Amino acid sequence: MEVCYGITVLERNDPFISIAEEALKGVAEAGVPGAFLVDLLPVLKYVPSWFPGAGFKRKAARWREFICGMLEKPYHRVKTELVRI
User: Fold this and answer.
1) Which residues have a Cβ under 8 Å from the Cβ of 60 and sit 6 or more positions away?
2) What are phi and psi of 15, to 5 degrees?
């Protein structure tokens, strides 16, 4: 974080590290072949997220938030700090 963005990582409870850890947990869970029924039946990707058995879509939406946050939050922090200068 410090090399790329100039953000010093906190010893404990760093928000950027927490987001990255959650994002990587999602990647690790989704990366297991056959972990979700949609891996075996690709047509299930068209099922609405509220449909029973479509919990994988809700999990994927949550993981997407963490992954986007991992990519965008450090950038936005640097951008706001540069505006303040």
Assistant:
1) 26, 30
2) -65, -35
Output the six-digit token pair for 28: 């690790």
The domain limits of the chain are 2-84
* Sign of the four-CA dihedral 60, 62, 67, 72: positive
Q: What is the pTM of this model?
A: 0.81
pLDDT per position as a tens digit, 48-85: 999 998 999 999 999 999 999 999 999 999 999 999 98
2 vs 15: CA distance, rounded Å: 14
* Secondary structure of 22-41 in HEC code, one letter for each residue: HHHHHHHHHCCCCCCHHHHC
Contact 16, 73 (CB under 8 A): yes
Whole-number Å distance between alpha carbons of 39 and 37: 5
